[in-house]
Amino acid sequence: MAMLLRTHFKLARTSIKENRTRSFLTCLGIAIGVASIILILSLTGSISNLVQSEISDIGADLMVVRPSSTKDSVTGIVEELTSANSFQKSSLAITDTDAIKKVENVTAAAPIAIATNTVITEKNSFDSVPILGTNIDFIKIEPLPIKYGAFLTAENEANSVVLGHTLSLALFNTINSTVGKMVTIMGEKFMIVGILDKIDKTINFDNIDYDNALIMNINSLDKISGSTQIQQINIKVSNTDSLAPAKEAITTALTEQKHGDKNFSVAYGDEITHPASNLFTIVSGMLAIVAGISLVVGGIGVMNIMLVSVAERTHEIGIRKAVGASARNILIQFLFEALILSILGGVFGLLLGYVLAFLLSTITPFTPYISWQIVAITFLTTLVIGILFGIYPALKAANKDSIESLKHYR
User: Fold this and answer.
1) HSE of 165 in the Cβ direction (CA atoms, 13 Å)?
2) CB 30 within 8 A of CB 299
3) 42, 57, 146, 218, 364 from 143: Cα distances, Å
4) Hey, which residues does 399 pair with through a beta bridge?
5) How far apart (Å, rounded) are the C-alpha atoms in residues 12 and 402?
6) Cα(309)–Cα(334) distance, rounded to whole angstroms?
């Protein structure tokens, strides 16, 4: 059996060498599809690792409360992006934070509300500035680096704001003399009490670009905006052993607070590390479909080249059958050749995908994600493509009549 496989391998190698150009183009079709899948999996894994790394840095004693939906995840995401229901009021309220703080083992609870508004300085005015509404507990849960000044405190939180590094540069062209200056939002004046150090983490479980954000007390945000949509509530517990009982206690407290409605979810650990953007989830799915289509096209290329090879080597098939080769031997020979073409394309695609991932990492915060699972998926995918699209030409070769095949000349 081993000798037979070596023979099939030598015949396949000879055939590929004799038709280098068309073999290369066939492998390229498979490689493009595989490279696309590798790039998508690497990007998805990188984002997941970024969020997981951030949560690990913050600590394992973190919990998050978010509005929930009874719909499945895909339907919920699509509806959120396309339906008017996405503009409905959040199921979380500022008072929910107070209820959570009363739960045993909860050491800090900070609501997160995101709004956009115009920020006016003495010389400049900027539209659509992201504003994060929270409270003084936020810094206890997520220790943002403060470059100058301080974070919001109980004494100053009512009329103070903290600026992100990039936003400070945009508003005042500086960061080292910004503390103490005033900004105006919706006619209300606020004093800048702190400037964040550069963070460069646009992907995180809070979905906040801190470098470009303005942070203020959530009650102040509610006052100037008229209505505050709370995206989530971050919670810190005393220790990791308190996570499970705290989750149950928080669920009970919020259910009572909402008169029996369980329109929220409490998550901790791996449950927090969902995709940082719903839109990214949809785009990744669409790209995966496109990559799958390109793989099918590559598979059709394998089938096409194998049908041409069978037609060209009909006389060879007749000779092999005349000297005792069975239909099974012929089938394995051509199927083996299709598998080699497909696997070569898969290996080339794996390398190409990671080259593209590394190039992408030079202009984005996404570090290429490499794992044995991705390599295994690549190998299995190319194997399946080779078998599916190589079986028909192999069967056609195996079923050729030996006498008619001997009569055939190129």
Assistant:
1) 14
2) yes
3) 29, 10, 9, 18, 24
4) none
5) 21
6) 9
Residue type, 216: M
110-168: per-residue pLDDT in tens? 999 999 999 999 878 888 899 999 999 999 988 889 999 999 998 888 889 999 999 99
| Adjacent-strand bridge partners of 187 | none
Which residues pair with residue 230 across a beta bridge?
113
Structure tokens at 265: 């979810």
| Secondary element (H or E) of residue 232 | strand 230-237
Contact 382, 345 (CB under 8 A): yes
**Residue 130: strand pairing partners:** 116
pLDDT digits 0-9 by tens, 187-242: 899 999 999 999 866 566 677 889 999 999 999 998 888 777 888 999 999 888 88
User: HSE of 178 in the Cβ direction (CA atoms, 13 Å)?
Assistant: 31
Read off the pLDDT of each residue in 386-395 and give the average, rounded to a whole number.
91
User: Which pLDDT value is given to residue 363?
Assistant: 78
d(Cα 118, Cα 312) in Å, to the nearest integer? 71
Query: How far apart are alpha carbons 134 and 234 in whole angstroms?
Result: 10
- 106 vs 157, 199, 330, CA distance in Å? 22, 27, 71
pTM: 0.66
Nearest to 341 by CA among 373, 308, 367, 365: 308
CA dihedral 58→59→61→63, nearest 10 degrees, is: 40
41: which residues sit within 8 A by CB, 6+ positions away?
369, 374, 377
What is the DSSP secondary structure assignment for residue 197, as one 8-state letter? P
